[in-house]
Design brief:
Chain lengths: ~160, ~375
């Protein structure tokens, strides 16, 4: 069944699917960003009704962010992992809240922690951080040790230092 | 004439705005936990709400990038205070997949036993808080007293009451102590007896039933669209359980049924958790009966380097799907770990959806019937 889904997607988007693999009820697809929304929409129509997670990885040396969409099908009992990459400079990608309403908060978190713009998401206000003016904290170029030293052990912060 | 109409319309609107009252729910409210919700109310009815999470945000995903796998297996405990074994279960397994090692059979059985004890403990704690939210104070005291039996078993096996730091990649830190089986069976018998008491005192108590029945109804298609998992989804009639769908560790060797109800209201969610306590007791009894002799872990240096690559693992925590996505760059530390915690969707998607249109008096009942853990949500 896994291979049927992969071949269906590959025949529909022959140029956009960069690589595919399947193992033990798991499907892995790496796709181009330009058609990722249509591919996810197709997967949803095939029964992947549960969006489990949206993960972001910062590949700073390659200058790219990777977005990983974890899907699960309640009817087929199969997991699908769809990956796509976007440039690190002014990162923006289309929102998927029109497919899964639950994506709204995952994208909000991604915007807060990595600074990725999700086009079409109406509410991207910060979730966890209050009055944050530094770089988004989960980016690799944000140094938490330097930040802690400066913020809590600085010269004017005699209380801890 | 037109002008006056316009002015009138505006003042009417203003009057209506003024009639909304904003009521803070948490973070110091005894029945909210560490979250703050601003409820915008029209009289007794909630018309809108703003959720302010972040009181327990510690940035674990980032902290883990600075630590090796031995340190991380202790750090992940703190993601969910009430259900730490599931957090450890996920992390131990995801590192095992990435490093290409497998825990021995005895290690897997011990992990599953402890994870199920954690589930019972988490559900009993939930029962106590649920009673507190509804004003059934004796239920709170009794449930939290019973939780102590399981906590003592944790201490006996791991040395830690709340944070066990017990599961490591490749098995468990140490073997079960002498006499654990007898103690565990005693505690399970006690818990099973106490469930009968909970039935009379709480689950079939008129107050409890009337406060929860037909409150906060979550339809299955909405629940799936919002990404709800675990007992909350099963109470809405969707049979989905990672333990059955993708069995891991010792779950392939036990018989159990997935508890699911149809209605999807707060009362079904409560009954679903009651059913899961009974099922978990039966799972642990089966595992204690069949636990094999042998090694409890493989020798794997915990500061060893993990090959470059990615791994993904999902387990069923007390609150639902608990998943890890780990990227390794070939060093002894992970390059990136993404934690999928069940309370994130429950609190930030399902709770605002259910609270809109509900009465203020039902808000604690709805909130706690979802059994969200703020530590789990903020990470």
């Amino acid at each position: 069944m896994d291979n049927e889904i992969i071949s269906a997607i590959e025949s529909k988007f022959p140029k956009e699917v960069l690589s595919s693999a399947s193992e033990d009820k798991k499907i892995l697809l790496t796709v181009k960003e330009i058609k990722f929304h249509q591919i996810l929409s197709n997967l949803k129509d095939m029964g992947f009704d549960h969006l489990s997670d949206v993960a972001l990885v910062d590949y700073i040396n390659e200058g790219e962010f990777e977005l990983i969409y974890h899907l699960w099908s309640h009817s087929k009992k199969i997991r699908a992992i769809v990956k796509t990459r976007i440039p690190r400079e002014s990162p923006r990608i289309k929102s998927i809240i029109d497919l899964w309403i639950g994506a709204q908060i995952h994208e909000r978190e991604g915007h807060e922690m990595f600074g990725v713009e999700f086009e079409g998401n109406p509410n991207l206000t910060p979730l966890f951080l209050e009055d944050w003016e530094e770089l988004p904290p989960f980016r690799k170029d944000f140094d938490i040790r330097e930040y802690v030293k400066r913020e809590y052990y600085g010269e004017d912060k005699g209380y801890f230092g | 004439m037109e002008r006056t109409k316009g002015i009138l319309a505006k003042s009417e609107l203003e009057e209506r705005e003024i009639s909304f009252t904003t009521i803070p729910f948490g973070p110091q409210h005894p029945a909210s936990g560490h979250v703050h919700v601003s409820l915008k109310c029209d009289g007794e009815e909630v018309v809108d709400l703003t959720f302010h999470p972040g009181y327990l945000h510690r940035g674990f995903e980032r902290l883990m990038e600075y630590r090796n796998h031995a340190q991380n297996s202790m750090l992940v405990d703190r993601i969910n205070v009430l259900d730490p074994f599931s957090c450890e279960m996920g992390y131990a397994n995801v590192v095992e997949i990435a490093a290409g090692i497998e825990a021995p059979q005895r290690g897997k059985f011990i992990r599953t036993i402890m994870a199920e004890l954690g589930r019972i403990q988490s559900h009993i704690t939930w029962l106590g808080i649920m009673c507190m939210a509804l004003g059934l104070d004796s239920g709170t005291r009794i449930a939290w007293g019973d939780r102590e039996k399981i906590i003592r078993l944790n201490e006996l096996a791991t040395g830690g009451r709340i944070y066990p730091c017990y599961f490591i990649p490749g098995g468990v830190r140490r073997d079960l102590p002498q006499g654990f089986k007898e103690e565990a069976l005693k505690a399970l018998d006690y818990t099973e007896n106490q469930v009968k008491l909970y039935d009379n005192l709480v689950f079939y108590n008129t107050t409890f039933v009337m406060r929860l029945e037909n409150v906060g109804i979550l339809r299955p298609d909405d629940a799936i669209a919002m990404g709800i998992t675990g007992p909350n989804l099963r109470a809405s009639g969707v049979v989905a359980d990672v333990r059955k769908d993708e069995p891991y560790d010792a779950y392939p060797y036990v018989n159990f049924k997935v508890v699911s109800l149809e209605k999807g209201d707060a009362y079904s969610r409560a009954l679903c958790r009651r059913g899961e306590i009974i099922e978990s007791i039966s799972i642990i009894r089966q595992l204690l009966e069949r636990i094999p002799e042998g090694d409890f872990r493989v020798k794997w240096g915990l500061t060893k380097k993990v090959a470059k690559g990615e791994a993904y693992f999902c387990c069923e925590a007390a609150r639902g799907e608990f998943c890890y996505h780990m990227v390794s760059d070939g060093s002894e530390r992970p390059y990136r770990v993404k934690v999928r915690a069940p309370s994130f969707s429950q609190n930030l998607a399902a709770f605002p959806y259910l609270a809109k249109g509900a009465y203020i008096a039902d808000i604690p009942a709805i909130y706690w019937s979802l059994d969200s853990c703020p530590a789990d949500m903020d990470r």
